[in-house]
Amino acid sequence: MTVHDPIKAAAQKARAAIPDDNAMLRAAAEMSRDYAVANPRIYWPDMLASALVGWAALGGAMLVKDAAVAIGCAIVAMMALYRAASFIHELTHIRKGALPGFRFGWNLIVGIPLMIPSFLYEGVHTQHHARTRYGTADDPEYLPLALMKPWSLPLFIVVAALAPVGLILRFGVLTPLSLLIPPLRRKVVAELSALSINPAYRRRAPEGDFARMWHWQEAGACVFALALVGSVFAFGWKPLLVYMGVHSAMTVINQLRTLVAHLWENEGEAMTVTAQYLDSVNVPPPGYLPALWAPVGLRYHALHHLLPSVPYHALGKAHVRLMATLTADSPYHKGNYAGMLPLVGKIARSTMTAR
User: Fold this and answer.
1) What are 336's strand-pairing partners?
2) Which of 118, 97, 149, 152 is nearest to 47 (CA)?
3) Which residues contact 223 (CB under 8 A, 6 or more apart)?
4) Do 121 and 213 contact (CB within 8 A), yes or no?
5) How many CB atoms lie within 10 A of CB 313?
6) pLDDT score at 354
7) InterPro entries of this UniProt entry (predicted)?
8) Is the torsion defined by CA of 37, 39, 44, 45 positive or negative?
9) What number is the average pLDDT over the span 70-93?
């Protein structure tokens, strides 16, 4: 599925071995010290308001009879719940004790009702940031998409559209069955318990406090999935279909965001930090649309790989300082792009030359 041209393979190795830019890394380290504190007065209102607007709009889409109003409610619900769901990324980086109760609150209000409890991401996403894992076969969140066949890109999006069906099967069917069948349980834990895009990734069984957190979150998602399917008998098909349509659209947008979060040009080589940055993408202002399709700081994805401990609300400030501080020839300036469409076009053109 990926390129095997010797010349291109040599070019990929050269990109992976790009020397680290010490000036950029020193400046990033300074930003980490200055902006590392997560502000609960930003996190809580943002997450709660997004969830409240999202669930209220979803209810409107289910109940309103006027088609145009219902569609409008569904769009609002999708965007608001997408923003609320994006806080799962912050949960993986928040220091222990920094935001008391936030993880529990997010799971109760957002994660379980969307069947994406945080255990699916916690302990997984941090491996994507590991210095020796990024872009390798051990990275759960990396595929050399730019080097794969052209049909791989639409398939990447279509799979995301089916996410709500897959989540209902995962939690409503496989969770209870796996409790009765130990071999199935091992398979579910290893292969169906991570929000990853690498099909070869296998997860270890949880232990200790994380295992206890995993269990109650999984139980909650299981109950919700069963209740969601059971709602058909009480309320008919419309609420379920509206929920799944909004969920599917939300997941597709996130998958498109994922598609342009990196350039996906590495084929398994361990990369320097600077090479990892250059394989990642910032979509900074002045554009406004990235704030919608890459919310909660995700528009600064390349910067996030330099500053994984910096909370989302400080990334914009850190970006402005780095742009002003670093010289024009710094690699930092090469990680900034104008928007989604040029990036999709760049990756699509790259797939056209894959062998």
Assistant:
1) 282
2) 118
3) none
4) no
5) 17
6) 60
7) FA_desaturase_dom
8) negative
9) 97
Q: What residue segments make up the domains of the chain, in order of their start?
A: 6-352
Show the tokens assigned to 341. 């469409």
Q: Which amino acid is at 99?
A: L
The first and second tokens of residue 317, run together, are 């400030």
Give the tokens for residue 3: 């390129």
Tokens of 252: 């597709």
Compute the distance between CA of residue 343 and CA of residue 293 in angstroms, rounded to an integer. Answer: 14
Cβ(281)–Cβ(263) below 8 Å: yes
Question: 271-292, pLDDT tens digit by residue?
Answer: 999 999 999 999 999 989 999 9
C-alpha–C-alpha distance, residues 288 and 303, integer Å? 18
- Per-residue DSSP letters for 161-177? HTHHHHHHIIIIIIHHH
Surface-to-core class of residue 159, CB atoms within 10 Å of its CB (0-12 exposed, 13-18 middle, 19+ buried): middle
Q: How many residues does the chain have?
A: 355
Q: Cα–Cα distance between 55 and 79 in angstroms, integer?
A: 11
Chain CA centroid to CA 222, Å: 22
For 184-222, write each residue's pLDDT tens digit. 999 999 999 999 999 999 999 999 999 999 999 999 999
End-to-end CA separation in angstroms for the chain: 7
> In a 3-state reduction of DSSP, which class is residue 282?
strand
CA distance 115 to 192: 13
Instruction: Return d(Cα 330, Cα 347) in angstroms, integer.
Output: 24
Question: Rounded CA gap, 194 and 191, in Å?
Answer: 7
The pair of structure tokens assigned to 152 is 């791989």
In this structure, what are the phi and psi dihedrals at residue 314, rounded to the nearest 5 degrees?
Answer: -105, -5
Dihedral sign (CA 169, 175, 179, 182): positive
Q: How far is CA 11 from CA 259, 261, 350, in A?
A: 22, 21, 14
